[in-house]
Amino acid sequence: MSEYIQRNIKLLVVSDTGIVLDKDGNYKAFGPVVKELKNLLDVFDEITWIGFNRKKQINNKSYVKISDNRIKVVLLEEVGGNTIFDKIKIIISYPKMFSIINKLIIKHKYIHSRAPSNPSIIVMFLSLLYLDKVFWHKYAGSWIDHASFFYKLQRFILSKLRSNSVVSINGKFSNKKNIISFENPCLDEKDRKLGKLILKSKKLRDKVNFCFVGGLNSKKGVDDILNAFKNISSKKIGEIHFVGNSELKDYYMKLSEEISYKTVFHGFLAKDEIKKIYKISNFILLPSKSEGFPKVIGEGMNFGAIPIVSNISCINEYINTNKNGYLIEKPISENLINVIKECLSLDEKIYLDWVDSNYKIAEKFTYSYYNYRVKNEIFKIN
User: Where does the Glycosyl transferase family domain start and stop, copy by copy (predicted)?
Assistant: First the structure.
């Protein structure tokens, strides 16, 4: 306890991440972010987390309880949308958001904002006023691909911030000292140990299995995946697993009836259940139109699923065709078919070499590596 009082290192996190208060008085939020912040408690003694009160997500299965009382929650009224009314509501909400965020920044030395978002843009401007504080702005989207005006604006502002701000992005796309490439964590020590065990059972069997993990929509390439398997005839293809959900799920299930291979739509799955899908999958498919760096690629690499992914953003810094996976060039729909055909003829020894290589690369996506960089490269805490 004396060490805790002596250190008392606090972090303020400002985001638009969805948080809800359930009927039992417990806060719940998007699982991967909850786990990320919980692991950061190895660096900080207390975290105050500002997020959006997304009441409609109360039954979202991807939301988990914030069980550690060292994470203090502050809720902002949810804003967003595409209509003119939505935009007016966003503008009207800024003074109140500014007041709440500013009061908490005053009480903290270390501040972390998660962009692109409306709260994060407020933090960007406040960082120009509080030069004695250390700001870490995490930009989650692609730093180079086409984006909306609002996203482009935030990228521009981030590129102009002062030396008291560190900006972390997906990929090595800037020469500025305070803009650094930074991996997002998704693996703990249990995942690494389980992955090592799973790798021992990996083989390129007579039947090759594929998986997709993410939102079921065209931007993630679900249409392209279904179209590809509709137009490929091979006795080597085993099962195709889709993990994730959306209002289009029933539509995609109907489309999958035109495919001659076993196709399973699992909907949302708990993390341990997703690991079982990785275990039986030889390849993970992600023919996205736009991405930062999806965590599911790191997860797949850890559990022996070779990535077949779009050549966008910084993905080619980790995946190289015919070295440890396959990059899909544009036009994605056409080239995905060719890549799947190519992977079906992959030699098993080469496949196992890729599996082993990817497992080693996946170390960069561990929480321990993430915490080390947060402490030593971003906030430089002694």
Answer: 204-348
